[in-house]
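#struct-pred

JT: dropping the chains for the assembly here, can someone run the whole complex?
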Amino acid sequence: MDFSLSPKLVDLQQRTRAFIAEQVIPLENDARQGAHGPAEELRDELVARARRAGLLTPHASPELGGMGLSHVEKAIVFEEAGYSPLGPVALNIHAPDEGNIHLMEAVATEAQKARWLQPLVAGHTRSCFAMTEPAPGAGADPAMLQTMAVKDGDDYLISGTKWFITGAEGARFAIIMAKMEDGSATMFLADMDQPGIRLERLMDSLDACFTGGHGVLHFDRLRVPANDVLGEIGKGFRYAQVRLAPARLTHCMRWLGQARRANDVALAYVRRRQAFGKPLGEHEGVGFMLADNELDLHTSRLSIWHTAWALDQGSRGNFESSVSKVFVSEAVWRVVDRCVQMLGGQGVTSETVVMRIFRDMRAFRIYDGPSEVHRWSIARKILSEKH
Amino acid sequence: MDFSLSPKLVDLQQRTRAFIAEQVIPLENDARQGAHGPAEELRDELVARARRAGLLTPHASPELGGMGLSHVEKAIVFEEAGYSPLGPVALNIHAPDEGNIHLMEAVATEAQKARWLQPLVAGHTRSCFAMTEPAPGAGADPAMLQTMAVKDGDDYLISGTKWFITGAEGARFAIIMAKMEDGSATMFLADMDQPGIRLERLMDSLDACFTGGHGVLHFDRLRVPANDVLGEIGKGFRYAQVRLAPARLTHCMRWLGQARRANDVALAYVRRRQAFGKPLGEHEGVGFMLADNELDLHTSRLSIWHTAWALDQGSRGNFESSVSKVFVSEAVWRVVDRCVQMLGGQGVTSETVVMRIFRDMRAFRIYDGPSEVHRWSIARKILSEKH
Amino acid sequence: MDFSLSPKLVDLQQRTRAFIAEQVIPLENDARQGAHGPAEELRDELVARARRAGLLTPHASPELGGMGLSHVEKAIVFEEAGYSPLGPVALNIHAPDEGNIHLMEAVATEAQKARWLQPLVAGHTRSCFAMTEPAPGAGADPAMLQTMAVKDGDDYLISGTKWFITGAEGARFAIIMAKMEDGSATMFLADMDQPGIRLERLMDSLDACFTGGHGVLHFDRLRVPANDVLGEIGKGFRYAQVRLAPARLTHCMRWLGQARRANDVALAYVRRRQAFGKPLGEHEGVGFMLADNELDLHTSRLSIWHTAWALDQGSRGNFESSVSKVFVSEAVWRVVDRCVQMLGGQGVTSETVVMRIFRDMRAFRIYDGPSEVHRWSIARKILSEKH
Amino acid sequence: MDFSLSPKLVDLQQRTRAFIAEQVIPLENDARQGAHGPAEELRDELVARARRAGLLTPHASPELGGMGLSHVEKAIVFEEAGYSPLGPVALNIHAPDEGNIHLMEAVATEAQKARWLQPLVAGHTRSCFAMTEPAPGAGADPAMLQTMAVKDGDDYLISGTKWFITGAEGARFAIIMAKMEDGSATMFLADMDQPGIRLERLMDSLDACFTGGHGVLHFDRLRVPANDVLGEIGKGFRYAQVRLAPARLTHCMRWLGQARRANDVALAYVRRRQAFGKPLGEHEGVGFMLADNELDLHTSRLSIWHTAWALDQGSRGNFESSVSKVFVSEAVWRVVDRCVQMLGGQGVTSETVVMRIFRDMRAFRIYDGPSEVHRWSIARKILSEKH
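RK: done, full complex below.
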């Protein structure tokens, strides 16, 4: 057993930390941000900075221009990147691109990689992942998929509606999950500028950290050639799991960084701000919040590290990543909520970055499987001893 | 002991409920709302509707044109009004005007009432309450007041900075809390259009339910004649308590209405939306959230009713209102957070009104005394048996 | 709406309070108590004291010698009685007798009342309620009843096993729940000294507040004449509900008294005991526990009062009593757990009465329907709007 | 980073697991146990079994006959031992002996080791640690020490009262913490059979897992020669920290084992027991408890491992062990409380081992520093950045 980091990893951690502090945090109040996230132009500047710093898309394989980070290494680097809401954008490790890169490295053809993955890894394009649907379609229960792919000669015609499609506006291409006539599911790759795809609108969401926001997409007999099927026909649900287990965990890593940031901001405040004759932090009621934040941050980090290590050992990690997802999403939420409380009125204004983290983070207890779905999944595995 | 409502009160409850459903909720998506709350024009329309419905400013005394509602009656009516985020604006029972009206009825002179209170009760003007200050001034600890009032002939000259001043932009007048040379505090009335008052900026806040938002105010040798002192010199802290005990409780009433609304929206959704083979609500994990919401809403209502009744019996209600404030602010927050969770992705978007309630409500655990200050106040009273 | 108590009720409250303080608490360390509760001899002495004080079996009807207390009146008196673990024994208002009296008043024949109920109300005998069964029988799910009643001439022959039968040892008679050949259930009355009834053993339980402990009973072709059927054939499940809705609530009342007692003991301690330079109670972390206890006690009381009032108005009270049962059982447990914590090492020893309350109370979250069953019952009623 | 265990450690883990299953659990219902713990005779038999299995006192150094386990190795072995309430007794790793052995290895003289430590490590004797005092003495705040050691020639005369002295009855010797005339504190070694030591009584406690229970001790001019001072004069408080940081952690290890046991018992039950048409475990409300137990057990284990690793790296570990102590003591309590709930009525009886674990465990949130003291200690270190 060993909790230490290799000198190489410590170096990468420190470089990332310095990059975030010096190159990213100063842009946090940049005006090129709105209700639907950082504008493309701001994203381009952030990506350019990371490229110069040699930190762009570090999780991609070296062949594609990344660092080929292991899951444990990602745990370290992504937490550092998450220390700023703009960090994951800068490093090109944000959802959904991060997970899409991971999935495509695993199952895309060389031609698909050259066409779609390479520019994505290079930070020149963005992508989206079109799975979630409005009622009565696929939400927490992916089996309820309504979007259909019908064979038409050598091609497929895809029709259906998707929503909560993160990054849809401005994405170069989409990975589309659709149902086959036999009830199985398949993933398809498609450029977003095709006539069969229509972005109906952007949704107004509590978060504002994703470039491109969250869109509602309509597919109307979108024609996809057989060559653009991602992986094998009928393996969509399996690939969704391949994508999701690590994708959930990278969310945990990034949000842990955000929670640590919020805690640092709150800590600085309660050290300084006086009330009732002494600094806020010296009131036990506030001190207990600091202690509880420490407990939550520490155990979240350990849970992430453990699951990352299990993935690195070759585990599929579904059980472990469910455990980490539930635990971390709830623990970091408690942290950020306490930070808001410690900051008092300022916690609910843009006077500090904490309100922004509070807004951005709430959805994490919902997406990639709400806590309730993961708890039930964990329970069933425990009951059947299949983990 | 009797938990029933008088027929007259039931009638008022039903009338308010119908008014909110028919006249207010249809305006919830009106475009005249922004980051700093409903625009004046929208407010005017809402107030006009309440006036026509005979429901405007119902807590003011009949002499001033209100209904002279008791605290218990307010508990019923304000909860109904709170069922829409626009309801309290419509009925003219929103903070800070509601509490200002209450305070001024108690301590203002007839001349002050004619000049400032009458138009306020009539819904023609708005007011603000200038107490909170940036560090190192008065926040959770009012004794840290920095804004000074210096005697100058028969007048007072007030200088200092205030922030989080709700409704400051557009307010006709302010009640200003300032420190005297002897260390005591006094409240002053002042029109907002005077040269000594400057609105520096509006703060970006998580909530957006208050017309006029939250402003930063500077007072620079603002001249206030002795006639415009509110109540007696040196009694500012006492008056703040007179204002706060019931004001905290009316917050509880309104937020209870909002939480009930959120719960109704979530309930309708989980009855309808299918996942894993049955409606969401028939999953125990979701059903338990419905049950917990019921527990929280029910006990919150009982706590409010009890404190309202105690105030009606003549209690100063400081202990009771602290108990209600902590309990209700935390219970309704749990309710709304569960509603977000039940709604899944839609919970964190403007697809329903719940996200708006979630945003607006978070500050309630902070303002009018954060939970920590009230817990400590309750504890000290228990330790000294002075309640 | 009115939260005041009538002068008559205040008088009864004060008399009960004084009785508990003067006549019952001094016996709390009486040696005649063991792992299975207060011995019969101690019970007899306590009952005699209550009889002399005119406080025995106050919930029974005046015709039977009680005071005919309404549910609201019970809320006041039972809380006071619960202030000592021996109080409910003294007043003859403990489970299961209290609920059995309530049920038999409602459905027993005059002959049954004369034979069994009258001596029970007079405090001369005890009874038990034989419903719960070991797996695969009736536990949280009453429909799984295994004990069978088979018609044999004019009689019934009952066979089966029951456990967790509170007060079985020493009870004069039992109310037995058994399944009929048509799948319905019926309640039977039977003296405990009959050959067909065998008390296998007493169970070692965490609590020790019930005279007679909790027994395992075997019925082997127990012969019950038709005259000893309680109420009508086939209405067992309905009667169980008639018994349970108020019985759950009287548990809440008594446990609220115990929680108040624990809190008073802890409060006295933290006022007195010094640590780190001041009394424990003046540390915020401890003060917050006092405040949270106040919140939990206060809202528990309001919930009980409201449900009691609803029952007095004629409501069946199933929904309300489920709400109160879940809320109060969890709230008072939090209170007692905090009291243990405030008392430090002494909290987990017999140095104070709190450990005893802690031990006795844990089962309350389980019996008369575990929290999980009530939450689900509440949820289903909300989903179907049938409450 | 590496979460794997060495093959040697896995072997030791498996051997310990098998020993507990085969040699210890069968004795759990042995009659030689009472309100004050396993009798000496039962302890002797357990120790003899561990000796034969080569598992006795594994944390002691090889020179003294132990295995010289590192902290990480202890984490693995002690958790396994804790799987039975009798396991720590068998392996001679229970409090207070475990911590006393650790401390004496660090600071005792060779003569002291030969006289007191060697027989303790060999399992032939027991010891106690006399620090805690009744009010107004040392409890959570060690600085309030009242027991005095006064120089008398070359000896010291110790007078004072201690309570909650675990294992006092039957202990061969005590480590006594006493205050010097200069206000510092010193530790003394003393045989328990001396005239100056009187065991007043055993305390009735909720737990019953420590041989010798918890005693009240009086020292009346107990004469201790200078040779029997443990370590240096005046370093008592420092040694208490040396003893406590790892001692807290070994409590975490053992209790984690107990919580895992409780969870296994509850899991087996909810797999088997039917209610409302399916096994209990397949009800989401119960399944969620299984999932939450998994989260709590998993993160507790990770926290223990991390602190153990930090201690092995040479850290003093005060901050880390406070974090683990608070987190684990609260997490395992939640686990055991949920197990009680899942077991229903059986959870609060001796039908399973869970009630016993529930009773034994409650004190863990109090001893070795209540949660509140550790939270405050953690907060102060965070505020001062000294960790």
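JT: nice. Chain C touches chain D through 46 residues (CB under 8 Å). Chain C has a mean pLDDT of 97.
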